[in-house]
Design goal:
By secondary structure, this protein is α+β, with helices and mostly antiparallel strands. Helix content is 29%, strand content 34%. It has five helices and 24 strands.
């Protein structure tokens, strides 16, 4: 046996190897890969943020007064139209229909006084009128009867049928009847006037609001005496309540006479209330009182609100910033058009002093933009530069937005 045969005998026969089964492992790996890719997309890809949309609206130049000022002054909010309403007569209050903070309209009944005496006076005046009319009727009958007798006596005197003495007697009776008729007619007029006066006294027991406004003080209660002249001393009220016309609110400030030349009528200004230091209210100069205070060396200036707001209350402390009225405002120039102020909701601005940040909507996302701010009012925030009218902005919670964030507009 040769060597090759011996080596062949020493070989160990092994069964053929089967290929490994990889089907289950492949499915597990594929599922893990899909989960990993989805998690990565969820974590790293930006998600659309739900927002609301606001549109920048153009505003007038007076409402877009900027924050810079040429003069500052302090003062208080006052009402140009304010009245402590009282009765025209002295009487006891039987009802009061107002409370502090209540709004009343012009001629609305705010209180009633005891009217028993006034009603009795009206009844008496009407009775006197009826008596005067009856007297007038009697005078008319007497005159009617005296007139033909007088005319007949005239004819008889002309024919010498009666004596002159008899005619004089008849004429005296006729004149008396005519005079009595005139007196009776005048008495009826006097009685009519007395009825009107008594009716006015009755109407004066009803106290009405002289104009529309808000009640700030309720001074009288039921059962108290009121009088326009304080009759009765300290136990008599002089008024029912105080009404303020909130549409007449303005700010009065004292400006040093050394700087009064910087202020002019219709000059733009900005009012900041002490109660709301972050709220800039557009305003304008109403008038400069043409007299100076010798003791304080100041001149009083009236400043009006361009836009009213229920948060503005009488006697609030305020600070006024006067702006340069000589600043160019040529709206026809290209620069003026580019810088035309716009009004946007306050929820669309992240304010930081004189500047702010807005997010402009474009191509399914938002662009972060810095803008220059003007005054703020109940109507919204004035943007002096950085936006054009018609620009669409994100509105609401802006904390989740960044430059380039994808957004989804809520209807």
């Amino acid at each position: 046996m040769d060597q090759a045969s011996l080596i062949e005998q020493l070989k160990i026969e092994r069964p053929a190897e089967q290929p490994p089964r990889r089907t289950a492992w492949w499915w597990v790996a594929s599922f893990a890969f899909v989960v990993a890719v989805g998690a990565a997309l969820y974590i790293f890809l930006p998600r659309a943020v739900s927002i609301q949309v606001a549109v920048a609206e153009p505003v007038a130049g007076d409402a877009a007064v900027g924050p810079s000022s040429i003069l500052d002054a302090s003062g208080y909010v006052v009402a140009r139209r304010q009245a402590t309403v009282s009765a025209k007569i002295t009487g006891k209050v039987v009802s009061v229909n107002i409370e502090e903070g209540q709004r009343v309209e012009r001629d609305e009944i705010i209180a009633r006084l005891d009217d028993t005496n006034a009603k009795a006076g009206v009844a008496q005046a009407r009775a006197e009128l009826a008596q005067s009319r009856a007297n007038l009727g009697a005078a008319e009958v007497a005159f009617t009867n005296a007139k033909p007798t007088f005319q007949r006596n005239e004819q008889q005197l002309a024919r010498a049928v009666i004596s002159a003495q008899t005619f004089d007697t008849a004429k005296a009776s006729y004149d008396a009847a005519r005079t009595g008729l005139e007196v009776a007619a005048r008495a009826v007029e006097v009685a009519n006037a007395r009825v009107e006066l008594a009716q006015r006294n009755l109407d004066d027991t009803v106290v009405r609001a002289p104009f529309a406004g808000i009640v700030t003080v309720k001074a009288a209660q039921e059962g108290e005496m009121v009088s326009p002249m304080s009759a009765g001393g300290g136990f008599t009220r002089t008024g029912i309540g105080t009404i303020v016309d909130m549409s007449s609110l303005e700010v009065e400030v004292d400006v040093s006479e050394n700087f009064i030349q910087r202020v002019s009528t219709d000059q733009p200004a900005t009012i900041t209330l002490n109660a709301y230091p972050d709220w800039s209210i557009p305003a304008h100069v109403i008038a400069i009182i043409p007299t100076a205070d010798r003791a304080k060396a100041t001149v009083k200036v009236r400043v009006g609100f361009t836009v009213g707001d229920p948060r503005i209350l009488p006697e609030m402390g305020a600070r006024v910033a006067f702006h340069d009225s000589k600043a160019p405002r040529d709206s026809t120039s290209a620069s003026a058009v580019a810088q035309q102020p716009v009004l946007v909701p306050t929820e669309s601005v992240q304010a930081d002093g004189d500047t702010g940040v807005v997010f402009v909507i474009a191509d399914g996302g938002v662009e972060r933009r810095t803008v220059r701010l003007g005054g703020q009012s109940a109507a919204g925030q004035v943007v002096l530069a950085g936006l054009k009218a018609g620009t669409r902005l994100a509105r609401g919670d802006l904390s989740s937005l960044t430059d380039g964030s994808r957004v989804r507009v809520e209807e």
